[in-house]
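We store chain and fold; example below:
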Amino acid sequence: MSQTIIDSNFNFPGQISVYKGKVREVYRLEGDLLVMVATDRLSAFDVVMPKGIPYKGQMLNQIATKMMADTQDIVPNWLLATPDPNVSVGMACEPFKVEMVIRGYLSGHAARQYKAGHRELCGVAMPNGMKENDAFPEPIITPATKAEKGDHDEDISRENILARGIVSPEDYEVLENYTRALFARGTEIAAKRGLILVDTKYEFGKTKDGKIVLIDEIHTPDSSRYFYVEGYAERQERGEAQKQLSKEFVRQWLIANGFQGLEGQSVPFMSDEYIESVSERYIELYENITGMPFEKADVSDIAARIDRNVREYLAQR
């Protein structure tokens, strides 16, 4: 097994604070700088799995970096530099307390809700007569917000977001427009690689001067679901599961092994062989979506490598 980074404890020059999310760890520095470290942690059903996935953080960070570059002409983003394979440095922003989830297909959470008999998700109607993994007539935006207690994501409607004053009407219109533009661009990028961008989520923040920018990751297997174009129609016709590249295959494995993050459930044992298979699936997506071979970084001492690279970058600013 390759060495992984599942936790960090850096003390960068000018460091003010650190926030540790489910996968990323964000260090705030003087001068309104953020250093975001993508760990190898794996989260599913809002639970962090006990073992890290080799090279996962590197893959997520490098996919997000490429996708930020490929979309910066339509939506401004927070990114300034990537001084290490696992690290992004960018502008500090005040994040909006909603995740903008957009779905082009009836899959994942939406499919589970549909199967349970619901025909509305986050206040948005879902047509009758759909099969799992069918395309919606047009993409739907189904936002999520953090629960008041804990770290769990909760569905929320546009109307509720505005009624509760979580986002102003003016800002929310910008978030919706940016979300649709990013999804359209992501769909084009995926199509060129023989993939279908099924659904994804975007997070946004506001800079000190009031500019709304894209933050965090974009079009990665942690934030997005992809199908292969080849064979999609035939599988739908036969009622077969779609071949996909996303974290959904981990969720399905967990469900099959009796875990959905519910009270009283325990995470099933993940063998080294299973962990390696998850890493290989992430590499597969990386190479498919970027069109480039994945080059494994030196993992002999990931923390020391990150610390050295970030310090060198900061010294040159």
